[in-house]
Amino acid sequence: MFAMMKELPLSKVYQFIEPGPVVLLTTQVPGTKPNVMTMSWLMMLEFEPPLIACVVAEGNYSFAALQKQHKCVIAVPPANLAKIVTDIGNCTGGDTDKFGSFDLTPLPASQVEAPLIGEAIVNLECRVKDSQMVKAYNLFVLECVKAWETPKLKDAPMLHHHGYGHFSVDGERIHIKSKMR
């Protein structure tokens, strides 16, 4: 059986473990323009209140804003925004007004300074709950304090990152009865 398998380089493991959708993370420090970055390294930690762990590299422009404000928005874009999402991820907020350059609609949030994204399926207003692992791993634990959905996009397919410019789009959805609520 092992003869049919080929060793996988450890650098490619993440391409198979990425479970969640590609998201957009917005931040805003008062007196500055809002910023948005593309992110795919996140995971759920708890259901209620919703806790989300995410990695924001120290070199990202959004890292400093998240460190300073301790607030952000996680927006889940539909797959038809794949080109915009990729372009956002290929530039820095340090020299690019991403909302202006990529025709995203910033909408006011109710609990945080960072804007919601009008084109998103879902927007999650978040506060940093735990930053103990930031120094070692750039890992923030966020608590979702308010959530918004766009009803007309509730069934829109999401984008999933598989590394090095490769993505997949949600396919057919199936439902299997669960005893969990």
**Can you give the helix content as a percent range?**
10-25%
Domains (count): 1
CATH architecture group name = Roll
Mean pLDDT: 91
Q: Major sheet, described briefly?
A: 7 strands, antiparallel
Cα-atom radius of gyration = 17 Å
CATH T-level fold name: Pnp Oxidase, Chain A
CATH class: Mainly Beta
Strand order of the largest sheet: 2-1-5-8-9-4-3
Protein name: Flavin reductase like domain-containing protein
Cofactor: FMN
Domain Flavin reductase like: 16-167
GO molecular function: FMN binding; oxidoreductase activity, acting on the CH-NH group of donors, NAD or NADP as acceptor
Describe the structure in your own words.
- This is Flavin reductase like domain-containing protein.
- Belongs to the flavoredoxin family.
- The model has no long low-confidence stretch (mean pLDDT 91).
- The protein is built from five helices and eleven strands; from the N terminus they run H-E-E-E-E-H-E-H-H-E-E-E-H-E-E-E.
- The protein has a single domain (20-168), classed as Pnp Oxidase, Chain A (Roll).
- Helix content is 16%, strand content 31%.
- The longest helix has 9 residues, at 61-69.
- A hairpin with an 8-residue loop joins strand 6 and strand 7.
- By secondary structure, it is α+β, with helices and mostly antiparallel strands.
- It is globular and about 60 Å long.
- The strands form three sheets. It has a seven-stranded antiparallel β-sheet with strand order 2-1-5-8-9-4-3. Strands 6-7 form a two-stranded antiparallel sheet. A two-stranded antiparallel ribbon has the order 10-11.
- The chain has helices spanning 14-17, 61-69, 82-89, 98-101, 134-137; strands at residues 23-27, 35-39, 42-46, 51-55, 71-76, 106-107, 116-117, 122-130, 139-149, 159-161, 167-169.
